[in-house]
Write a structure and sequence with these properties.
This protein is an alpha+beta fold. It folds into 4 domains: about 170 residues, no CATH class; about 120 residues, Chitinase A, domain 3 (Roll); about 110 residues, Chitinase A, domain 3 (Roll); about 210 residues, Roll (Chitinase A, domain 3). The chain contains 24 helices and 22 strands. The strands form 6 sheets. Strands 8, 9, 10, 11 and 12 form a 5-stranded antiparallel sheet that branches. β6 and β7 form a beta hairpin. α3 crosses α4, α8 crosses α24 and α9 packs across α24. It is a single-pass type II membrane protein.
């Protein structure tokens, strides 16, 4: 179990050379540090871990398989990017360290490590703490191959911890840095500012040309280098069950219910006939599905409930067995409470009792009004629910309340007011108290389209593709069929798995990223059988890594260039505006210029109240001389001018060690993330797994 949990760390040294594999460049899943990772070598390692899972009884589904691939890819990065640095720096892990981590001082176990967290969960004593003795016993008794895997997982984790710590603890904060941080946070200023938002200039008045977009993109190339993406237009045809499918299924589910009632081995029958594995454990009434009680108020052994339909999933329940709960009683009741507690005067409590008695008298004459009265008087979570508490364990109620319920075996309003510490209760019994536990065999079956229906859907989509040689033809032909729903999936990443709400669309995405797939091409119909849909996809756009493409960034570029042109217009108009102070300048500019105040601002402010995120403008404000009007400056949301009302300097303090410690803690907490990010960037990692999976 523990060896499996740390599979991401164990493969490299034990199986790396054996499972490397070779082959042509076309069979390459990626490059790390200029070294090729072959599909054969990668897939062999994935298969090895899958076999480990299966040997220990774990099912292999798509989610597990994807997780394993991520683990193995991380293992390759560890081997090719990190390991050479460990060797160059002389970082090692001794057998004694591994022993100490497993069986020794807790200081050797890093609580942030996933491996250590798994060890702690696995070797936990009765108090919930890590048990070195349990770990030592496990180490001694497991077979050598598993011991090697565990050793390797701990070794790799420890190597990475040492490497990260080496860089983390090389971080140092100077007194000057601490002083600057203190000054930035504690220098306060009050300002008056003139603000002209970019939104004051209508978009329609600012024309942006492709040449301007191209020029801006070239000047800011680092901001607009593309990731490798593909954009798709796709049409979804839902495969709905036909009337014939529905009739056939209805006959089947009714016959299944009849056969279920006669079955001698309920659990075996349910396992064979249910889409989902049944839970055959004894359950108390609070755990049983609500629809059972709504359909059959009294449950006896052998009773069959259903089939019940919920969105084309039909459920049949059979009470397979019952037994007594020796410790608990359960009941389904509703409660109407007139509050009266010890904080109230006696006269108020007496008044509450009389009110409750009056309501009870009316309800005994008209029990059907209970829900309405409960909604009127209750103030807790049952208000609006007719006072319904549902099935509950009587131990969860105060004693007078639970004793009143246990004291009756009748359905309806209990003919007496019950006093508790909360007040006066009127109780309606929906199901009397019971100590029965129920073993319920459950069959769930979903109405699905039959083979002929699926075949017909394929013929429809296949004909559409064959009759559409271009994207324009596909659009025109699809428009003739109202059952085809048009969708778009812009800028998909190579590792994407979904198309909008449709999951597991890797076949389509792999096609889109193939070198030979060109924009405008249409893919074959793809059935997503678990979602009962056929998808027809066409490639509408493609960007390559680091490509500078106006089309790929058109929206962002247009917004930015338009903003720059608005800024230039506003700046020019403000420079022409006349006035000795902000109010007179605003009046000269026009009604779109606003004069506001910003109080108790500090250097490290990034936002201006009423104007949003504008860090440059905040810095500009503090740079303005008192008594003067600043020059206009454009930032994120508009153009600003400032007047200083008051600036209060931070002043000096004797000791900046507190600030140094805070800055150091912050820097070290971010170090692990930035170290990993830097290693990955410098290792020139090219991940092409999307071509195969």
């Amino acid at each position: 179990m523990i060896a499996l949990a740390i599979a991401a760390f164990i493969l490299t040294d034990l199986f790396g050379k054996m499972l490397q594999g070779g082959g042509p460049e076309s069979m390459t899943v990626g490059h790390i540090q200029g070294e090729r990772v072959s599909y054969q070598g990668f897939n062999n390692r994935v298969s090895f871990v899958e076999a480990q899972y299966q040997r220990q009884g774990y099912p292999i589904n798509d989610q597990t398989r994807n997780s394993i691939r991520e683990q193995v890819w991380g293992d390759f990065i560890f081997e090719k990017a990190y390991q050479p640095q460990f060797e160059e720096l002389g970082i090692t892990v001794t057998p004694q360290e591994i022993k100490e981590i497993l069986q020794g001082d807790s200081l050797m176990r890093d609580s942030q490590s996933q491996v250590i967290q798994q060890l702690t969960r696995t070797f936990k004593d009765s108090t919930g703490k890590y048990s070195p003795q349990m770990a030592g016993s496990y180490w001694t008794n497991i077979p050598a191959p598993q011991r090697n895997q565990l050793r390797e997982g701990i070794r790799k984790d420890r190597l990475q911890k040492k490497y990260t710590s080496l860089l983390q603890f090389s971080t140092y904060i100077t007194k000057a840095e601490a002083k600057r941080d203190y000054t930035n946070k504690n220098t306060k200023g009050d300002f008056k500012f003139l603000y002209v938002p970019y939104s004051s200039v209508a978009d329609s008045t600012v024309k942006v040309t492709d040449a301007e977009l191209e020029a801006y993109m070239r000047d800011h190339a680092d901001e607009y280098k593309s990731q490798e993406t593909r954009s798709l237009e796709y049409y979804a045809l839902s495969i709905d069950p036909s009337p014939e499918d529905s009739t056939k299924f209805a006959n089947l589910i009714r016959q299944t219910a009849k056969d279920f009632a006669k079955a001698e081995n309920d659990s075996a029958f349910a396992v064979i006939n249910s889409d989902d594995p049944p839970n055959m454990n004894f359950q108390d009434p609070t755990k049983l599905p609500k629809e059972i009680w709504e359909t059959v108020p009294t449950l006896t052994k052998g009773a069959v409930v259903g089939p019940l339909n919920n969105k084309n999933t039909y459920t049949i329940y059979k009470i397979s067995d019952t037994k007594a709960d020796t410790a608990n009683y359960y009941a389904n009741v509703s409660n109407l409470l007139i509050k009266a507690d010890s904080t109230m005067k006696q006269s108020e409590q007496d008044s509450a009792r009389r009110k409750a008695e009056g309501i009870l008298k009316k309800l005994l004459d008209n029990p059907g009004d209970f829900e309405n009265q409960a909604n009127t008087y209750n103030t807790d979570g049952t208000k609006g629910k007719g006072g319904a508490l549902g099935w509950s364990n009587l131990k969860t109620f105060v004693k007078p309340f639970s004793e009143a319920i246990k004291g009756t075996d009748k359905i309806g309003v209990i003919p007496k007011v019950v006093k508790s510490a909360y007040g006066y209760h009127i109780i309606k019994v929906v199901h009397p108290s019971t100590n029965k536990l129920y073993k319920v065999a459950t069959i769930k079956k979903t109405l699905l389209p039959g083979k002929s229906t699926i075949d017909e859907a394929f013929k429809t989509t296949d004909k559409l593709v064959n009759n559409s040689k271009t994207l324009e033809e596909l659009r025109a032909n699809a428009a003739k069929n109202p059952k085809l729903i048009k969708n778009t999936a812009p800028k998909l990443q190579p590792s994407a798995t979904n198309l909008g709400s449709y999951q597991g669309a890797r076949e389509i995405i792999r096609w889109a990223f193939k070198d030979e797939t060109k924009v405008g091409e249409i893919f074959k119909p793809v059935e997503l059988s678990d979602q009962n849909v056929y998808i027809i996809a066409a490639l509408t756009g493609a960007t390559e890594k680091d490509e500078l493409s106006v089309e790929a960034n058109r929206e962002a570029l247009t917004n930015k260039v338009r903003q720059e042109k608005k800024k230039a217009q506003i700046l020019e108009k403000l420079k022409a505006a006349k006035g000795a102070n902000l109010e007179s300048i605003a009046k000269s500019y026009g009604s779109l210029a606003q004069v506001k105040t910003m109080n108790n601002a500090s250097y490290d402010n990034s936002s201006i109240q009423g104007a949003g995120f504008n860090p440059l403008a905040v810095g500009y404000a503090f740079g303005t001389t008192k008594g003067a009007v600043s020059k206009p400056v454009g930032d994120q949301t508009g153009v600003f001018m400032f007047e200083v009302t008051k600036v209060t300097p931070a002043g000096e303090i004797k000791d900046y060690s507190k600030q140094q410690k805070e800055l150091l803690t912050r820097a070290q907490s971010l170090a692990r993330f930035y170290i990993d990010q830097a290693v990955r960037e410098l290792s020139d990692i090219e991940d092409q797994r999307y071509k195969f999976y």
